[in-house]
Amino acid sequence: MILAGLVLLAVGASDLVRQFVPRRWIGFLIAAITLVVIGTIGDALVWAFVAIVAGVLWVWAMPESRRSAAGFWPAVALAVVCIAAVLWLGERTGAGLLTPAWRVDSPIGPVSFDLVMLTFGAAVFLLESGNRIVRAALSAESAWRPVERASVHTASDDGDGTPPAARPSDGFQGGRLIGPLERILVLVLTLVGAYALLAAMLAAKGIVRFPEISRDGETGARAEYFLVGSLVSWVVALGAAFLVWWCALS
Fold first, then answer.
1. 1, 233, 245: which is closest to 125 by C-alpha?
2. Is the distance from CB of 144 to CB of 222 less than 8 angstroms?
3. What pTM was estimated for this model as a whole?
């Protein structure tokens, strides 16, 4: 279980660094050191290094500058690795150096260090990595990407040497923020058993998007874009929630 949590944390942290940290090598270094510290404290140093390798492989398999040849299959491989890690290693009874002082209670009883790390890793993974998986799925299916408005980019912004020009940017710009928030809510609501509220939230998203989708005309392109993106995002969030829930009850 600790390996699955560290792997999800490494992958999620690497994508957050790529998205938000200007000097990426510093961000990657801090993320790697953090994983080593967690591994040392939690008596899982070997698994921390394995997680770092998994993060490097993820960055290589899900590039930013070009379309990934593997599509969204790296996400499938990651899911298999996490499930295999849980089945193989299971849950440890101790918390490494924190064992004497470790005590976290919940409505279902004491919570282990491994389960806390798995939940934390899943939450970090759902933030930016979920967005990358959704974009990879949309790209693999060649789903239409809405062009609503133009934004001005400079050559230094793009790094491709082209002169500054007004270029189209994707519509639905709030998706970069809505997606992570939605996935975290799905994770939390699933774990606390608030299924009615979860269903209402997912239905509300469709209602809010209906006026935008209804302008499709005969193509159905917006509906396809919305359905593919939303369903992939929900599957990723529900998969992470199920993994945590399964480990909590096992």
1. 233
2. yes
3. 0.84
